[in-house]
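Contributing new records

If you add data, match the layout below exactly. Sequence lines come first and carry their own label; structure lines follow with theirs. Keep one chain per record. Anything else will be rejected by the validation script.
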Amino acid sequence: MAYLTLVKPKLFYGTPAWHPWTKTNTEKMARTQNKALHFIHGRHVPPPEKQNMLSVPAQLAYNDLLFFKKSLCGLTEYNAMARITEGRVHRGDDPLHPRLQ
């Protein structure tokens, strides 16, 4: 409960806008998350699966997809769909489902 109310909102706030795409930044976020979990649980931190939480890369992907869905449905005040374009077509891509950027 402490992690969900005190740490997670600060750690992941606004990640769809400033998404840390370098491995170094993602690792820094994971270290911060681990420090908080060690502070809360002590020496024996249960694995993320038992805590019903996602790893940092999975949480970043989830936040991006959630923002995309909200933008697609018109639930955000910011018009992100104006900036989303169809990406490059790769061999083997399904023409009915284009890649997005």
